[in-house]
Amino acid sequence: MLPLVRRIRTHALASALLAVLAALTLTATAAARQQTAGKPGVQPGVYLVFPFENRGASPHLDWLGEGLEELTIQRLSAAGEAVYAHSGRAGQLERYGLSLSAKLSRATMLRIAEDLDADYVVFGSFSSDGTSLLLESRVLRVGPTSLLPPIRESGQLDSLMDIATRLAWRTLSASQRVYPLSLDEFAKKQQPLRLDAFEHYIRGLIAVDDDAKLRNLREAARLQPEWPDPDFALAEAYFSRRDCTAALPWYARVPKTHSRYVEATFATGVCGLLSKEPERAEEVFTGLQQSLTKNNEGAADLPEILNNLAVARARNGKIAEAQQDLRRAADMAPDEDDYSFNQGLLALRANDAKGAAEYFREAAAREPDNPEDRSFLILALEKGGQKAEADEERDSASEAFGPKGLPVIHWDPKDEIAMAKFDRVKMDLDTATLQLQWKPLIADANSAGHDSPAVLVRRGRQSLSSGKLDDAQTEFRAALSAEPGNATAHRGLAEVARRQGKLDDAVRELQISLQLRDSAVTRTILARLYLEEKKPELARGELERALKLAPNYAEAKQLLEHLHNGKPSDAKPEGGKQ
Quick one: which of 43, 155, 310, 466 is 20 to 30 A from 356 by CA? Predict the structure, then answer.
């Protein structure tokens, strides 16, 4: 078996194709959804938008490609549609080894949309002579596959916002047989934007140079102070530098009604931990968790919040509560090692070396490629008087990581400041589970008493993310009863079976899914299952087929490389972090 490569972070949903669902932008309220209730012919779905191609316009207007992508996302989202944010598309392109600026064929766009389980792909082009502007939008329906006729809008360049609004409205009208909003109603839902502020915002988002990014975002915020998007982007730019002093005032400007408010609040709590203010951090994470539960009845906990809340509580001396939070987080993310690792740290601080060793052993099993997990396991074994086991683990780790591959741990429980550096704080919030909480609203508002296969599958994922395997299985089977050829439902059943320890059943479901729709993502998941079953040759075959479909697919390339190296491991499929 092979050492499991460090997995790309995914949430605990149905399959690895959902790796980027964390970036779904679902900002509509329940009231906005209910406006379409009972309207015949409405076909809600998830949209995936690509940058618009510059055809003949000056290179100075290249920013408009990403700008029109962002405008389309904002306009669809403001009208209550489910649409992937820019980061969702970017993350999937990264997995496929494609650059953000790559010109993609329609076939590639379709494959990416299928892997993300999007219902519609939106792409287009623009041209300008510096004064006038011509926009063209295309809609590619994913299932059944069909390319809708082009939609064109034109006008003066300085009326970009109005042109983009008309284009987005016509795009929705084309993809949904009877779109319920008039153009005026659609336009009233949009955030009024200044063109100069929007240009600075987009240039800031796409800037490679850090100073240029900050300069453009600050100018966008200055030009339109009531628009929170530049505020959040500025806060994120400073936070990426771990400059909480600069980031916090910008996070504070993000209103509670904004789609990024939860992320802004989460980052504020992280800053409390980084600034050694655990009381403040505990207050923020407790309030955030309570708010999410209150505003989304039945919402699942988010393990990142639970983890950071546990770290804050532990630093405040609330060990029992911290242990409970970490147990819940570990149960929700069965392939994540950080939560078990933090449980081990708590046990070590309580002088429970044997208990700590079990937690660190669990962490090492969840993430075999993390040498720190193994170092702490050895430390706990030694402190617990299990010298023979410690020596065995040290020899095994030396073989896996090299003679100097393990970090040296200086453990002094009396030095709280030094001990705090070992705590694993989650720096980013994976909002996928949170965003999917809105899916039932789509179903309630638009299904008129009928749950489509897509709604059943998404509800199954939500149950899966909450650890409700029986409920998830029921939803996936209901989807297959309605649509026997639903490849995504079979992938969902595969993940349920994998979590139940029924690897043969999981393999069978993935094989059926592949017969219905070939996918590099699904083949990579199947390869990981074969590795867990200690069938490396079958895994190799699946990875080679995956790379024929997507030659630059990063995870398949990494796994195949490790197969060629022939190192031992307990590799596991990527189902738990989806």
Answer: 466
